[in-house]
Amino acid sequence: MSVSSVAEKWVDEVAAMTRPARIVWADGSKAEYDGLIEDMLRDGTLLPLNSRTYPSSYLHRSHPSDVARTEQLTFICTREREDAGPTNNWMAPVDGKAKAGQWLRGGMQGRTMWVIPYLMGPAGSSMSRVGIMVTDSAYVVASMHIMTRVGAVALQHMRSDDDFVAGLHALGDLSPDRRLILHFPEEKLIWSVGSGYGGNALLGKKCHALRIASWQARQEGWLAEHMLIIGVEDPEGRVTYLGAAMPSASGKTNLAMVESRLPGWRVWTLGDDIAWIHVDATGQLRAINPERGFFGVAPNTSPKTNANATAMVRSNTIFTNVALTPSQEPWWEGLTPEPPAGLVDWQGRPWQPGSGPAAHPNSRFTVPVHQCPSVAPNWEDPQGVPLSGLIFGSRRTAVIPLVFEAFDWTHGVFLGSAMSTETTAAITGKVGVVRRDPMAMLPFCGYNMGDYFAHWLALGAQATRAPRLFRVNWFRRDADGKFLWPGYSENVRVLKWMVERIRGTGRAEETPIGWVPSPGALDLEGLALPAERLRQALHCDAGEWLAALDDLDEFYGQFGSRLPGPIAEQLAVTRRKLATRR
Ligand code: SAT
Ligand code: MN
Questions:
Q1: Which residues have any ligand 1 atom within 6 Å of their CB?
Q2: Tag placement on the chain: N or C end, fewer CB within 10 Å?
Q3: Whose CA is nearest to atom 1 of ligand 1?
Q4: Could you report the per-residue pLDDT of 529-568, keeping only the tens digit for each?
Q5: Alpha carbon distance 184, 100 (integer Å)
Q6: What phi-psi label fits residue 80: left (phi over 0), alpha (psi between -120 and 50 degrees) or beta?
Q7: Separation of 67 CA from ligand 2 center, angstroms?
């Protein structure tokens, strides 16, 4: 395979700094993957699973302090602090390199340094992009094999010698005290040291496909979003494509693979985490999934909540930090109603009921997309799929209705920018705290979020056939703490209403916050949901909203003059409408 001289020079420089014993260029072959697995089984990095019930599947146990993304150690290193914006941690590029450099110098001594050329996006797509990452972790190399397209296919996609994002990953000593995830968007460069965890270490995913790509997307006029992609098929066989932005561990994978409860309707899976979205020559938004695998949350995945995911992880899957049964099968909370006897927990210790979760709450499976039973036949179409709707969803116990539709693109961008959510185990820190999370991109936007809102507005102006924008919240609860909406498979009913809205047949009522389904407009056939509970789930309380908008106003304040005028205007208009309702 031919390698760019720019890439070779960069790899030489990294090797001079990290001093590995050997350098191996990954070719992405099955033989290479098998060799990596064999090595990791030998040195204990992987444990074999039951080869009859989970063929070619393995368990990896991470360092107990390295189990989730560490946002406080994640930085955007731009020359100007303002370009990273108030919602990102910022470090000057020289300072970042000096600090991480101490731990990287000589950090790969005696170890193998893998060089992984990888392609994000389908082969043959003009929307796909190349990365070249180095790592001293075999687990990362094997995971990149699953999550991306590795080898010659990547190098063939380079449009020039320097047309790649460079990523340096080193395990270091895995101590959070010597861990940094640094992004240098101006140099198309990533440095990650001190963590072997997915979002910190599989550099193609959040670091490249979201943080660096969002920066590039702004410059080049497209969007890199934290969105699943699905096709919703109606009984006549017509497919409507939707993207949905939701925070980590808030049901994206479940919605991406949802099994329909409505006769004749089905949902096709194209992606569960990231969408790259371009405006085509006709003014239509088109999306590709840059990834080739799923890195999904295991807990609560079951035949009931996500039958497709449960089926797809029965082979060729690497599990991380799940529990183990005596018959060498993986187990996690929610997989079966009762935990099997004789479990070993995610740290390899005998587990007893009452001794905390057996699987880590952020335990994961890594599996190729094509193993998903609901995978769309066109999921790797180089042209992407045309998006007719975009969904912003978050996890909120109160305030936010089950579903409503924006009045227009600008209002929808406002709703996305106004999103807040309750935190989950996908990030290190407290779980269940409400925080702002615009477009579910707070941890992933590689530049000033004020500019990001402006970019969204500009893209809508370019799209002559802009998608409809929706807001959802599956997680609203009643006064007793019970979920108002059953969620999971029943969410297809909400998707059906969206498709009807897109087609112009869905009925809705105007409220100060957007179009809410009219009574009877959601198809509840076969679902025993009392009308009063649905009313509560869809209710917009003016007082609650006005209080929430005060908090939003404060959040917007940090962007100063970088907050687009139309967004501030939407806030003012919404407040006025709500005030007259009170
Ligand atoms: O851990 S990842 O960042 O890869 C997944 C997620 O948190 O969304
Ligand atoms: Mn994610």
A1: 69, 198-199, 205-206, 248, 295, 426
A2: C
A3: 199
A4: 999 999 999 999 999 999 999 999 999 999 999 999 999 9
A5: 13
A6: beta
A7: 15
